[in-house]
Amino acid sequence: MGLLGISLAFGLSVVVFAYAIGGISGCHINPAVTIGVLAAGRISARDAIVYIAAQVIGAILGAFVLKTILTGQTNGFNAGEWAFGSNGWGKGYQNEFNMMSAFITEAVLTAVFLFVILATTSKVGNGTMAGLAIGLTLVLIHMVAIPITGTSVNPARSLGPAIFAGGEAISQLWLFLVAPIVGGVIGSVLWRVTYSENKVAA
Protein backbone atom coordinates (compact mmCIF):
# COMPACT_ATOMS: atom_id res chain seq x y z
CA MET A 1 0.00 0.00 0.00
CA GLY A 2 2.93 2.33 0.53
CA LEU A 3 3.37 5.07 3.13
CA LEU A 4 0.30 7.07 2.14
CA GLY A 5 -1.96 4.03 1.92
CA ILE A 6 -0.96 2.72 5.34
CA SER A 7 -1.31 6.19 6.87
CA LEU A 8 -4.78 6.58 5.41
CA ALA A 9 -5.79 3.12 6.63
CA PHE A 10 -4.91 4.00 10.22
CA GLY A 11 -6.38 7.50 10.12
CA LEU A 12 -9.62 6.62 8.36
CA SER A 13 -10.15 3.68 10.73
CA VAL A 14 -10.13 6.14 13.60
CA VAL A 15 -12.53 8.46 11.74
CA VAL A 16 -14.96 5.59 11.24
CA PHE A 17 -14.82 4.40 14.83
CA ALA A 18 -14.94 7.91 16.27
CA TYR A 19 -18.40 8.23 14.76
CA ALA A 20 -19.37 4.58 15.33
CA ILE A 21 -18.52 4.24 19.03
CA GLY A 22 -17.74 7.81 20.06
CA GLY A 23 -21.19 8.15 21.58
CA ILE A 24 -20.64 5.03 23.68
CA SER A 25 -17.08 5.36 24.95
CA GLY A 26 -15.64 8.48 23.36
CA CYS A 27 -13.77 6.07 21.05
CA HIS A 28 -11.11 5.39 23.66
CA ILE A 29 -8.97 2.83 21.83
CA ASN A 30 -5.59 4.09 23.01
CA PRO A 31 -4.18 4.02 26.58
CA ALA A 32 -2.10 7.15 25.91
CA VAL A 33 -5.27 9.01 24.95
CA THR A 34 -7.12 7.72 28.00
CA ILE A 35 -4.27 8.74 30.33
CA GLY A 36 -4.04 12.14 28.64
CA VAL A 37 -7.79 12.67 29.04
CA LEU A 38 -7.47 11.56 32.68
CA ALA A 39 -4.68 14.11 33.21
CA ALA A 40 -6.96 16.74 31.68
CA GLY A 41 -9.63 15.92 34.25
CA ARG A 42 -12.16 14.75 31.69
CA ILE A 43 -12.48 11.13 32.80
CA SER A 44 -12.48 9.37 36.17
CA ALA A 45 -9.65 7.09 37.26
CA ARG A 46 -12.14 4.21 37.54
CA ASP A 47 -13.31 4.62 33.95
CA ALA A 48 -9.73 5.03 32.76
CA ILE A 49 -8.75 1.67 34.25
CA VAL A 50 -11.70 -0.07 32.59
CA TYR A 51 -10.92 1.53 29.23
CA ILE A 52 -7.23 0.64 29.37
CA ALA A 53 -8.01 -2.97 30.29
CA ALA A 54 -10.38 -3.21 27.31
CA GLN A 55 -7.82 -1.59 25.00
CA VAL A 56 -5.10 -4.04 25.99
CA ILE A 57 -7.39 -7.05 25.59
CA GLY A 58 -8.58 -5.77 22.21
CA ALA A 59 -5.04 -5.18 20.99
CA ILE A 60 -3.92 -8.68 21.94
CA LEU A 61 -6.96 -10.25 20.29
CA GLY A 62 -6.42 -8.14 17.17
CA ALA A 63 -2.78 -9.17 16.92
CA PHE A 64 -3.78 -12.80 17.42
CA VAL A 65 -6.26 -12.57 14.54
CA LEU A 66 -3.58 -10.99 12.33
CA LYS A 67 -1.06 -13.69 13.26
CA THR A 68 -3.60 -16.43 12.54
CA ILE A 69 -4.38 -15.00 9.12
CA LEU A 70 -0.74 -14.50 8.12
CA THR A 71 0.41 -17.93 9.28
CA GLY A 72 -2.34 -19.50 7.16
CA GLN A 73 -0.41 -18.90 3.94
CA THR A 74 -0.11 -22.20 2.10
CA ASN A 75 3.40 -21.40 0.89
CA GLY A 76 4.58 -20.82 4.44
CA PHE A 77 5.10 -17.70 6.52
CA ASN A 78 8.35 -16.53 8.09
CA ALA A 79 7.58 -13.99 10.80
CA GLY A 80 11.12 -12.72 11.37
CA GLU A 81 11.99 -9.85 13.71
CA TRP A 82 9.44 -7.11 14.35
CA ALA A 83 6.67 -9.18 12.78
CA PHE A 84 2.95 -8.40 12.65
CA GLY A 85 3.53 -4.64 12.37
CA SER A 86 5.63 -4.36 15.51
CA ASN A 87 7.27 -1.06 16.35
CA GLY A 88 11.02 -0.72 16.78
CA TRP A 89 14.22 1.20 16.24
CA GLY A 90 17.95 0.66 15.73
CA LYS A 91 19.96 -1.69 13.58
CA GLY A 92 17.85 -3.87 11.34
CA TYR A 93 14.64 -1.87 11.75
CA GLN A 94 13.66 0.14 8.68
CA ASN A 95 15.83 3.28 8.48
CA GLU A 96 17.71 2.40 11.68
CA PHE A 97 16.98 5.50 13.76
CA ASN A 98 18.43 5.42 17.27
CA MET A 99 16.52 5.13 20.54
CA MET A 100 16.52 8.88 21.23
CA SER A 101 15.01 9.67 17.83
CA ALA A 102 12.36 7.00 18.37
CA PHE A 103 11.45 8.29 21.84
CA ILE A 104 11.24 11.93 20.79
CA THR A 105 9.16 11.04 17.72
CA GLU A 106 6.65 9.03 19.72
CA ALA A 107 6.40 11.50 22.60
CA VAL A 108 6.06 14.64 20.45
CA LEU A 109 3.56 13.16 18.01
CA THR A 110 1.42 11.73 20.81
CA ALA A 111 1.43 15.15 22.47
CA VAL A 112 0.18 16.68 19.21
CA PHE A 113 -2.46 13.96 18.92
CA LEU A 114 -3.76 14.54 22.44
CA PHE A 115 -3.84 18.29 21.97
CA VAL A 116 -5.99 17.90 18.85
CA ILE A 117 -8.30 15.41 20.57
CA LEU A 118 -8.83 17.57 23.64
CA ALA A 119 -9.19 20.79 21.65
CA THR A 120 -11.68 19.49 19.10
CA THR A 121 -13.82 17.76 21.71
CA SER A 122 -13.82 20.67 24.18
CA LYS A 123 -16.86 22.89 24.63
CA VAL A 124 -15.35 25.44 22.24
CA GLY A 125 -14.37 22.86 19.66
CA ASN A 126 -16.38 21.70 16.66
CA GLY A 127 -17.73 18.42 17.99
CA THR A 128 -19.36 17.37 14.73
CA MET A 129 -16.02 17.54 12.93
CA ALA A 130 -13.89 16.20 15.78
CA GLY A 131 -13.72 12.65 14.42
CA LEU A 132 -12.49 13.84 11.04
CA ALA A 133 -9.91 16.20 12.54
CA ILE A 134 -8.60 13.49 14.85
CA GLY A 135 -8.42 10.90 12.06
CA LEU A 136 -6.62 13.25 9.67
CA THR A 137 -4.16 14.15 12.42
CA LEU A 138 -3.41 10.46 12.78
CA VAL A 139 -2.84 10.20 9.01
CA LEU A 140 -0.22 12.97 9.21
CA ILE A 141 1.36 11.39 12.29
CA HIS A 142 1.76 8.09 10.46
CA MET A 143 3.28 9.76 7.41
CA VAL A 144 5.97 11.24 9.66
CA ALA A 145 6.57 8.34 12.04
CA ILE A 146 6.24 5.19 9.93
CA PRO A 147 9.79 5.53 8.51
CA ILE A 148 11.17 6.09 12.03
CA THR A 149 9.35 3.71 14.41
CA GLY A 150 6.53 2.20 12.38
CA THR A 151 4.28 4.57 14.37
CA SER A 152 2.89 3.65 17.73
CA VAL A 153 1.45 6.67 19.60
CA ASN A 154 -0.63 3.92 21.20
CA PRO A 155 0.82 1.52 23.82
CA ALA A 156 -1.89 -1.09 23.18
CA ARG A 157 -1.23 -1.04 19.44
CA SER A 158 2.45 -1.82 20.17
CA LEU A 159 1.81 -4.39 22.88
CA GLY A 160 -0.37 -6.74 20.82
CA PRO A 161 2.05 -7.37 17.93
CA ALA A 162 5.12 -7.45 20.22
CA ILE A 163 3.67 -10.28 22.30
CA PHE A 164 3.42 -12.53 19.24
CA ALA A 165 6.57 -11.29 17.49
CA GLY A 166 8.83 -11.67 20.53
CA GLY A 167 12.56 -11.04 20.11
CA GLU A 168 13.56 -7.43 19.43
CA ALA A 169 9.94 -6.30 19.32
CA ILE A 170 9.30 -7.35 22.91
CA SER A 171 12.68 -6.09 24.17
CA GLN A 172 12.01 -2.64 22.70
CA LEU A 173 8.37 -2.53 23.77
CA TRP A 174 9.09 -0.40 26.84
CA LEU A 175 9.71 2.67 24.67
CA PHE A 176 6.33 2.34 22.99
CA LEU A 177 4.64 2.05 26.37
CA VAL A 178 6.48 4.97 28.00
CA ALA A 179 6.94 7.55 25.23
CA PRO A 180 3.27 7.76 24.14
CA ILE A 181 2.14 8.08 27.77
CA VAL A 182 4.69 10.85 28.38
CA GLY A 183 3.51 12.55 25.20
CA GLY A 184 -0.12 12.13 26.18
CA VAL A 185 0.42 13.87 29.50
CA ILE A 186 2.39 16.67 27.79
CA GLY A 187 -0.42 17.16 25.28
CA SER A 188 -2.90 17.32 28.12
CA VAL A 189 -0.85 19.96 29.94
CA LEU A 190 -0.56 22.02 26.75
CA TRP A 191 -4.32 21.84 26.28
CA ARG A 192 -5.00 22.90 29.86
CA VAL A 193 -2.68 25.88 29.49
CA THR A 194 -4.04 26.91 26.10
CA TYR A 195 -7.69 26.35 26.99
CA SER A 196 -7.36 27.50 30.59
CA GLU A 197 -10.93 28.85 30.68
CA ASN A 198 -12.44 25.92 28.80
CA LYS A 199 -11.68 22.88 30.91
CA VAL A 200 -15.19 21.47 30.97
CA ALA A 201 -15.81 18.75 28.39
CA ALA A 202 -18.41 19.36 25.72
Tally of helical runs: 8
Structural class determined from secondary elements: mainly alpha
The rounded Rg comes to 17 Å
Shape: globular
Question: N-to-C terminal Cα separation, in Å?
Answer: 37 Å
Q: Summarize this, please?
A:
This protein is an all-alpha fold and 202 residues long. The protein contains eight helices and no strands.
List the defining traits of the structure above:
disordered C terminus; 202 residues; Glycerol uptake facilitator protein; 8 helices; globular; single chain; mainly alpha
Characterize the structure shown.
This is MIP family channel protein. This protein is an all-alpha fold. It has one domain: Up-down Bundle (Glycerol uptake facilitator protein). Helices cover 69% and strands 0% of the residues. It contains 8 helices and no strands. The protein has helices at 2-25, 31-39, 45-70, 99-120, 130-149, 155-165, 167-171, 173-194. Helix 3 (45-70) packs parallel to helix 6 (155-165). The longest helix is centred in the first third of the chain and has 26 residues, at 45-70. The protein is globular. The chain starts with a helix and ends in an 8-residue tail after the last helix. The model is unreliable at 198-202 (pLDDT under 50).
